[in-house]
């Protein structure tokens, strides 16, 4: 919870007791006997026979038994010499301004050799739900410089917009380009990035760190790194650490925070691992039945609050197993987030960058962020017309593959051409190309002007008169 | 008083609860978290807790209130925004700040506000449950009728006019078992439907201003509908359009496990939207229940019951109420989550075996009814439930169980949504079983040929889908002109009629009268086109006519100029289309 108001504290155990009563270790779970009153969600410290210490959390507490989930491997633990200490409080993260520019591990401990964060403010990492009544409607247009996002799937401040990608697609490049170029029009406000990596490779992590470094963004970035070689159980904590930091910076330091969470698929797999160790009744594909609720407690921490200056915008990245958008992870994510940016293997093969498929992508908050005074009066109409025309063009492309281009009517041939130009001129751009919204709209009008007026049904006549590019022919 | 024996997520097992009953509300731990008993074994009770249980430990106290989960019904409900267990979110914000912390109890209705009560019942008369004692002008749109609560009947001894809070006594009834004080508010247990005298057959449409719904797949007042659709297919926009424009007197909107920002959008837009009939802000007839996805899962389970109980209360006053639940899948998932924690044997896809029964029970609370009242007041509750099938697969248990009990099916289609055909209601898959019930109404109140026109339009669309298969093989040029004409008309139906923009000031709402004129204009054009084709005209030429373009812009014709503009278009159509044949 980032609010300065703290919840009344749960009663704490006065003297932490060491229990040496583990009777079962199963996967990431310890079954500790004889525990009288462990609190649900309480943090424990586990001392191994060789002296190493690990952290864990109570998942199920009953009279005489506590089930503890270990953040880290259970290798080296045994039942008679390992001790468990109940710390009497739930997981908290010390937060301060000094976190900017630092790199932490998945549990919030320094990973860059720097000092520990010391602060009076230690926030519970499981945030309380934001009161829907306190939320402010996100409406500020963020220009990412990518035409396909700015015109067709506009990102606004306080939105959660995930990138659905697949193995081998350039989602990291796209995310990095957005982080690099994202800005409000005519504004230079306090801006920072919180980056949380769950189970990504060190190569991917280095790519991001280098990107942040080369653009000078590193000192405005807080990084939480859990690499694929790190304990998978930490991944359940990592995004909560990141979001707690983001809430502190946004709501108490008035900063505008862009949170990048990658890769959410690894997070969900860690959850599944715990669920199966607890022998829970599985939902779809073995993922726990509460996956939706759990993901919601992360994604819903994006937003804006009335009367506070800062904001949290989320850009989660997930890789869809076998590019399957109906897989539980993208499916449940899509039901919570305000749209999705979908990377397409088909466009990737055609050599289009960024390979974002406009037909399956969506930004639900787009309408609030566009139009007169925000972007441009004709924005909605242009976006709708382009969508419809591209969809028709793709249909014609499929049709012409069967019946040949010659059998198409004259209008249909125009649509075919529009689909080509849309992909090659509008979607396609260089990884370092930062287009303004006006530039993007100009390209859009140039393509749409191929069509006769009668086909421009989504555009009001006055906009056609004003913006249509008169053909030289 | 009992103690906690086990905590696992939202489920707490409590021991030593002597005399506790099923579904009693209990308070758990030092914080007094609110929960509900869902299983009893001896004196051991399993409790689902409506708040986050982090920090609760075995040994903490558990207290039963002896009462089942109830809502308070009275003036002040309208314009409110509640969480799933009727805590007003604005009060929570004032007391707790921007984040909802735990263990806070808030009165559902403002206890200090004075309401001006006008008695209508006569002192000395015999009153029975549901009898109207008097009225309170709750909002400029809605006159709140104060009714005798269920379980009280006798002689009205006393009834005062004046300003009262909901906690003050407005009168007394002498019953055989003693004197009963009367107030402006009453309580009702959410899991029990409020009784009715009789259920009536549906016969009046709920006019929504949405063309595809009103014309093709109408819902009756008191009916049930299901909107299943994959994400991004426009479920929420559809629900919100219905909440905004349907001609119900009162709207209850339940945001069950959905996005926080969506509720914010509703909160931001509704006060600025005007009721098409009265011009007053829509909020004055609306109750919002917001239990967003990150709020506790057990409260999400309760939220639909809270919503429908409020709807039934206004129905009992004699109003037509519409309840939108977005989304019932989240409600079902909450059941599944709780059931999983109870280690119950799962049914299909991990859902509990009683899923179908619960869904059916919920929709059965809809209906056009004769309320329990001396004068047999009619009233209705219409229920529209959104379903979010995983992966857009309608064969999953929640969709299937919902379809078994609802009579209207608006099938949202991802492929329509992806080409920005909105509302993305698939016209070939959707159905409404109310068309027959509503036919007399259309005949009397709209136009004699409306049902025929509707049927003809649907047939044209069906024909189109058959022709499209041929086009896929041979191309459009290979079709005879007559068939091309059919494709032309069906395209007009799709693009100029079925598509409707929720974001356009004029297009967002189309009156039923205008719908009729629009549909008639398109089909008349089709008839003229076929006549001209028979005389040798070419579809390509007809498509170039100026009147064709006018037709594609008719959605923007203002309601005031309806008759003049459509009559002019009808005349132009007849002459200019026929001329193409003469010329060719």
At a glance:
Chain A is of the alpha/beta class and about 475 residues long.
Principal-axis shape of chain A equals: elongated
State the fourth-level CATH superfamily of the largest domain in chain B.
P-loop containing nucleotide triphosphate hydrolases
Please tell me the overall pLDDT of chain B.
Answer: 91
Silhouette of chain B: globular
Structural class of chain B: alpha+beta
Low-confidence stretches of chain A: 1-13
Percent strand of chain B equals 15-25%
The count of β-strands of chain B is 26
Largest sheet of chain B: 10 strands, mixed
| Secondary structure tally, helices of chain B | 16
| Assembly type | heterodimer
What is the first-to-last residue Cα distance of chain A?
A: 62 Å
Overall structural domain count of chain B: 4
Largest interface: A-B, 92 and 81 residues
List low-pLDDT spans of chain B: none
Radius of gyration of chain B, whole Å: 27 Å
Instruction: Please report the first level of CATH classification, the CATH class of the largest domain in chain B.
Output: Alpha Beta
Distance between the termini of chain B: 92 Å
